[in-house]
Specification:
Largest sheet: none
Helix content: over 70%
Strand content: under 5%
Structural class: mainly alpha
Order of helices and strands: HHHHHHHHHHHH
Number of domains: 1
């Protein structure tokens, strides 16, 4: 028996989604460090990430890769299209406004995901999940409060598009339980890369980026994005979309700290308090639900009824 199989269904989801969020934390930072025009960064991100997603699919499924694609069906095509919009919204949002604005707006995806799950999947989330969403939203708002006035409405609109399509994507994956949609992200890369490539070629004198810029792009688009997003895309197989969205907030906090450390975007004291609130909320919720899970496994029946988040322990 592998060590992975000793973890519960929910624990596997937490490790996959949380790991993906941590891997993706430098995303916004590296987009700014690369400092490339809109069409060019999108083109490189599309084609290189598509290649990375394909290599991961081949490594995981081998000769069964084509069968993995067929299992995704039309839902997989919708996932690829939605994630293409998420990619464009996130990248262009970072191009037109400060990272704090993009991350704050992207943090609204748990609210959107929770509403969509309630409407489409008829999922009932316990009060602690709604409370955690609210507390995390307050924390994220505190993190980006000192940046909020520096953004443009164009960048904010792109960021909102990314948050909405990301929430729809995760909720849509929940309609096909047990089906891994991550191989379809290859088509997301092709869609984004091809579309952006046409704009790049239509521009004035297209040229390759400098060596240092190319190194950053390869690290981000060929390694970080495929690995991180593959883990995140598998999250809805184990957790409800609202909880996946909550864990994505780890990317916001860690990404802000990285920007502070590497490019000197020092957060205000209120932002530090917000980061502590987010991490504290996620930690407390995880520990509490882990305790409930252990009680269920042990067959413990407390005197007072305990409401277990059934949607989190599929």
């Amino acid at each position: 028996m592998s060590r992975w199989s000793t973890f519960s269904h929910r624990q596997q989801g937490l490790l996959l989604t949380g790991g993906g969020a941590i891997i993706m934390a430098p995303d916004a930072l590296l987009i700014k460090v690369a400092d490339l025009p809109d069409a060019e960064i999108l083109m490189w991100r599309g084609f290189l990430s598509g290649l990375g997603f394909l290599l991961i699919a081949l490594a995981r499924y081998g000769r069964g890769t084509l069968a993995a694609y067929r299992r995704c069906g039309w839902t997989g095509i919708a996932v690829a299209l939605l994630f293409s919009l998420t990619t464009c919204g996130f990248v262009l949002g970072n191009q037109y406004t400060k990272a704090g604005n993009v991350l704050m707006i992207l943090a609204s995806s748990p609210i959107i995901a929770a509403v969509l799950s309630w409407i489409i999947l008829k999922e009932r989330l316990p009060r602690r999940t709604w409370l955690a969403i609210c507390l995390c939203m307050v924390g994220i708002a505190m993190i980006a409060l000192d940046d909020a006035g520096a953004g443009s409405w164009v960048g904010n609109a792109f960021a909102l598009m990314a948050a909405t399509t990301l929430a729809i994507n995760f909720t849509l994956c929940r309609t096909r339980p047990g089906v891994d949609m991550s191989p379809m992200l290859v088509f997301n890369g092709l869609i984004v890369g091809s579309t952006a490539g046409l704009f790049w070629l239509a521009g004035s004198e297209p040229s390759l980026p400098a060596t240092n810029q190319l190194a950053v792009v390869i690290l981000l688009c060929l390694i970080i994005v495929p690995c991180g997003v593959t883990l995140l895309q598998r999250g809805p197989l184990y957790l409800p979309s609202a909880e996946v969205g909550l864990l994505l907030l780890l990317e916001v906090v860690v990404g802000t700290l990285l920007a502070w450390w590497i490019i000197g975007e020092q957060p205000a004291p209120i932002a530090i308090v917000g980061g502590v609130l987010v991490l504290g909320t996620l930690s407390a919720k995880g520990l509490y639900e882990r305790r409930l899970e252990l009680r269920m496994r042990a067959g413990f029946e407390p005197a007072s009824p305990i409401t277990v988040d059934r949607s989190s322990t599929l």
